[in-house]
Design brief:
Layout (H helix, E strand, L loop, with lengths): L9 E4 L9 E4 L10 H7 L5 E4 L3 E3 L2 E3 L3 E3 L2 E2 L1 H22 L5 E5 L1 H12 L6 E5 L17 E7 L7 H13 L3 E7 L7 H17 L1 H6 L1
Parallel strand pairs: 2-3, 2-8, 8-9, 9-10, 10-11
Antiparallel strand pairs: 1-3, 4-5, 6-7
Helix pairs in contact: 2-3
GO molecular function: hydrolase activity
Protein name: Hydrolase
Organism: Methylopila capsulata
């Protein structure tokens, strides 16, 4: 399958430093495939970047799955769209010759990344979930084999609350993920603290070599 045949509109930036874990960039509501490129480049300089555009439109704003109201998700659509995204990752790995990526997702993008981890274990080598909520009320049993997950929650977030973050953390831990949850003095928007925390986390994984070796 050629890059032109992939199932999502996307941007791919090839690696300039071999051996680094690639990043799958997943934007928030209203974003697109360019939104997180600068963030991905800052967090993982030289890594391959893969950034798809969500295929659901909410009043013209791209998303990765439908919701019924603020914070109320269409869980049947979550399951369908998580499967679509997992297939896209498999297509992209073949087309671009990349390892299983680490997801870097914000808000709706973080939620679909969590859904892919819980519904399609092995698709992602890990995830940095920024302002995430549980995408599924009762996720299926999964085995994530200590996949590293960073969760960055905002103490002042009116959308993805601390309770939401704690529930998702429990779900991921129950599936075997190695979760690091940090609560920042922030609201729903991203801050320099998010950049710094995610950069430290990614650098530690890259230095250990554990993710790249396991997913190549």
């Amino acid at each position: 399958m050629s890059a032109q045949d992939l199932s999502f509109v996307h941007v791919h930036r090839p690696a300039t430093r071999p051996g680094l874990p690639p990043l799958l960039l997943l934007h928030g509501t209203g974003g697109d495939e360019t939104d997180l490129l600068a963030l991905g480049e800052a967090i993982a300089p030289g890594a391959a970047l893969l950034s798809p555009r969500g295929q659901v439109l909410e009043r013209g704003a791209p998303r990765f799955f439908r919701r019924l109201a603020e914070g109320v998700f269409d869980e049947d659509d979550v399951r369908r769209r998580a499967g679509d995204l997992a297939r896209f990752v498999a297509e992209a790995r073949t087309a671009y010759g990349i390892a299983a990526p680490i997801a870097l997702g914000y808000s709706n993008g973080a939620n679909i990344a969590a859904a892919v981890m819980l519904l399609h274990p092995g698709t992602l080598a890990g995830a940095a979930l920024l302002r995430a909520m549980p995408p599924l009320t009762t996720p299926p049993a999964a085995e994530l084999d200590a996949a590293p997950v960073l969760m960055l929650s905002g103490a002042l977030d009116p959308i993805a609350s601390g309770a939401h973050a704690a529930l998702l953390e429990r779900q991921l831990r129950a599936a075997g993920a190695a979760v690091t949850l940090e609560t920042l003095p922030a609201s729903h928007g991203l801050t320099r603290m998010d950049l710094e925390a995610a950069t430290r986390w990614y650098a530690r994984l890259a230095a250990e070599g554990r993710v790249a070796a396991a997913s190549s």
